[in-house]
Amino acid sequence: MNEPQRFRTLFLSDIHLGTRGCQAEMLIDFLREHDADRIYLVGDIFDGWRLKKGWYWPQTHNDVVQKLLRKARKGTEIIYIPGNHDEVMRSYLGSHFGGIDVRDRDIHETADGTRYLVIHGDQFDMVVRNAKWLAHIGDWAYTAALWFNGWFNRVKRLWGGQYWSLSRWLKLKVKQAVNFIGAFEEALAAEARRSRVDGVICGHIHHAAIKSQAGIRYVNTGDWVESCTAIAETETGEMVLIDWVEIARARRRAKLIDLRAAKAGKPAKVKPRAA
After folding, report:
1. Name one GO molecular function term (predicted).
2. How far apart, in whole angstroms, are the C-alpha atoms of residue 24 and residue 265?
3. pLDDT band at residue 1 using 50, 70 and 90 as cut-offs
4. How many Å apart are CA 31 and CA 39, to the nearest integer?
């Protein structure tokens, strides 16, 4: 087995352990192939909203937790910044559990001296702040979309198709969703400016990005429900977006090419690896 690809820092958020939409198996594969000196868990790691309504915790979800704890035991610094779905952890700010520090927010300095505010971001979502009942309705609709998406992709796989995210597509196509994402990015950039840092790293909206927002470096980790993305800091301080779905898709294509080449008696091509 190959050694894990090592980064200076990894940022993960919106895993939503405890829900059927959580892509725990893909995350386990990702954690198996990646390591870092420091890992930030940027909120909504487990979903207390859903777990209150009904317990769902398969072995793969437990395996994710064990994988992270194992990394902590081996010396990885892990910082847990709670979000709105795991807000119960905000009662334990400043605590230390099994090698994991719980903080409301943090300032991360990269290898090249860039300073980032690390925060989940729900504090700047007006729906969550001012109309929590509406946020719960939105969560129900989102869960329904994920349920439909799961069945759609099961049928699609029977015909040899690849994974497609309905909710991700809707967010990119519906004007109100696009406007919400833009307003969220502006609010987080403003908070970074108030905090006198160079950028912000957040989660919450399940929309991965690395971009400049009004002179502030805006970084969003994405999620492990739809897009399966993470942000990694290299040893030189560069921030890179890892799209694990695209990497898995490329590997499947490469494997298919290899199988066809083997049948034709041709040499196999080199398999793609993670960024």
Report:
1. UDP-2,3-diacylglucosamine hydrolase activity
2. 37
3. low
4. 11
Question: Which of 102, 75, 96 minimizes the C-alpha distance to 6?
Answer: 75
The pLDDT score that the predictor gives to residue 3 is 86
Q: Give the separation between CA 195 and CA 37, rounded to whole angstroms.
A: 25
Determine the Cα–Cα distance for residues 239 and 183; give it in Å rounded to an integer: 23
Tell me the HSE value of 134 on the side-chain side, using a 13 A CA sphere.
7
Alpha-carbon span 127 to 207, nearest angstrom: 17
Residues 203/44, Cβ–Cβ less than 8 Å = yes
Which region holds residue 212: left if phi is over 0, alpha if psi is between -120 and 50, else beta? beta
Task: Mark out the alpha helices in the chain (DSSP H runs).
Answer: 24-33, 48-53, 59-73, 126-130, 132-158, 166-173, 175-194, 244-264
Both tokens of 30, joined, read: 């990702």
pLDDT by residue (tens digit) across 5-35?
A: 999 999 999 999 999 999 999 999 999 999 9
Asked if pLDDT for residue 251 goes beyond 70, the answer is: yes
- CATH 3.60.21.10, domain 5-264, yes or no: yes
Distance CA 84, CA 54 (A): 18
Reference 5, options 30, 42, 35; nearest CA is 35
Helices (H) and strands (E) counted in the chain, each on its own, are: 8, 12
Q: Is the pLDDT of residue 157 over 60?
A: no
If one compares 184 and 240, the residue with the highest pLDDT of the two is: 240
CA distance 136 to 90: 19
pLDDT (0 to 100) of residue 196 = 98
Binned at pLDDT 50, 70 and 90, residue 259 comes out as confident
